[in-house]
Amino acid sequence: AGVRRSYWLARGPDTADGTAPLLVMLPGSGTTGRDVATTFTGLATRGPAAGVTVVFPDGWEQVWHVTGTPPAEPALDDPAFLRALVRHLQGTGLQGTGLQDGVGAVQPVFLTGISNGAGFAEHVARHGLLPLAGLFLVAGTIREESREAVPVPRQRTAVTIMAGTGDKVVPYGGGPLRARGIPGLILRRRAARHGDLEIGRAHV
């Protein structure tokens, strides 16, 4: 929709049949793909070393939009960006993402995210917006608004969730997504600017 998007790529070794896994890693609010690739996970080197190609898409203004498009960019479509990105990588030698004609994935595509990226990753998987072989969520789970819209996920996939009982932003037992102090104020202002209103920020 004419919105410029960006990503970071750590390419794994080529395989003769093009079936090396592709991992799509979504950063959290206020961070970039490069931050996650290097400082937070080390997947820029660890992924290719394990035979996996890892792509780190940047959220628009460092946010993924779980509950709708931001008022400042109504044409924005984060799921379309992810689909276009996977197709683009497929066209540069990464074959068989399962995006053609609804066929099953030859090259497995896995989706993971941290915090805001995890909430959006779950939304993408639940709504069947990208065919996946697996889903891995870190410090972020199911948004209540997303679950109410699609109570039964539209695709079946393996899921791993990492959550901390001491997490003050994403409470382990569910409920509103909140943070205290200056970091909380920054997060709330960023969320409001992107149309992520408090009423839609509860998680399961």
Strand order of the largest sheet: 1-3-2-4-5-6
Helical content class: 25-40%
- Beta-strand level of the residues, as a percent range? 15-25%
Distance between the termini: 32 Å
Give the total of beta strands: 8
The main pleated sheet reads as:
6 strands, mixed
State the order of secondary-structure elements, H for helix, E for strand: EEHHEHEHEHEEHE
What is the count of helical runs? Answer: 6
Mean pLDDT: 81
Instruction: Tell me the structural class.
Output: alpha/beta
Low-confidence spans:
93-105
Give me the Rg, rounded. Answer: 16 Å
| General shape | globular
Please explain how this structure is put together.
The chain is 29% helix and 17% strand. With 204 residues, the protein is α/β, with parallel strands linked by helices. It is globular and about 45 Å long. Mean pLDDT is 81; it is low at 93-105.
Task: Please render the helix and strand layout as text.
Blueprint: E1 7-10, E2 22-26, H1 33-40, H2 43-49, E3 53-57, H3 78-91, E4 109-114, H4 116-126, E5 134-138, H5 144-149, E6 158-162, E7 175-176, H6 181-193, E8 202-203
Parallel strand pairs: 2-3, 2-4, 4-5, 5-6
Antiparallel strand pairs: 1-3, 7-8
